[in-house]
Write a structure and sequence with these properties.
Elements lengths: L5 E2 L4 H9 L18 E3 L5 H21 L24 H15 L10 E5 L1 H11 L8 E2 L5 E6 L6 E5 L3 H12 L27
Parallel strand pairs: 2-3
Antiparallel strand pairs: 1-4, 3-5, 5-6
Length: 207
């Protein structure tokens, strides 16, 4: 698979999403409330690789939040990274069970996407990031094609998991999950990377 096609900014369709979701309850959370998905690390081959990925994830998220007029959410961004020996090479079912256990003491039952699905980062995700940045590409480039990606794992077993482009994780996939549920981001195949052109971004009444 070839590397990503670099872009300076989101497509017009993505910009329109932030216009349509100007003030959704899931986004305009209290500054005291944590924002973002819980991240699960399932690759422990190198701490340096992990640090590089988290730097990349934060740069990507900062860039997309700023360009989408959600800069006020940056202060509340909290990935609450889950790291443990039992998570090394954990599969999606094992991560889901760990996440569900975490939810028993952390879910305020308010329906926010943070408590509906978690993010899994494995060796494939780390390798994709490394390939994307190997030629000196800046961390905050906009990856239109979703070459760099993570996996969203639903807390509901029947919903499974879905690959999502890192540049589309926050706020785009988060918004869609809040407004449309899992069906809004689900693709035909779980390994197909969910991009805004594929996600259900239409509001009621949209053509």
């Amino acid at each position: 698979m070839s590397g990503p096609q670099e872009s300076d900014e989101p497509t017009e369709q993505i910009k329109n999403l932030s216009i349509r979701t100007t003030d959704p309850p899931s986004q305009r959370e209290s500054r005291e409330s944590p924002y973002g998905f819980v991240v699960y690390r399932t690759d422990y081959t190198s701490d340096d690789r992990w640090k590089n990925f988290m730097s990349f994830l934060n740069a990507q998220t900062r860039s997309t939040l700023l360009s989408s007029n959600f800069s006020d959410l940056l202060d509340g961004l909290d990935w609450h990274v889950q790291e443990a020996s039992e998570l090394n090479e954990a599969d999606y079912d094992q991560v889901r069970e760990h996440f569900k256990t975490w939810l028993t003491t952390n879910d305020p039952q308010n329906g926010h996407p943070r408590f509906q699905a978690c993010v899994v980062v494995d060796d494939v995700c780390l390798s994709a990031m490394e390939t994307a940045l190997e030629d000196g590409t800046p961390e905050d480039f906009f990856d239109n094609e979703g070459y760099t990606h993570v996996y969203l794992v639903s807390k509901n077993e029947e919903e499974g998991y879905q690959a999502v482009g890192v540049s589309y994780l926050l706020p785009y996939a988060y918004n869609v999950l809040a407004e449309k549920g899992w069906e809004g981001i689900k693709q035909r195949y779980e390994e197909d990377v969910a991009l805004p052109g594929d996600m259900d971004m239409t509001e009621s009444g949209d053509v």
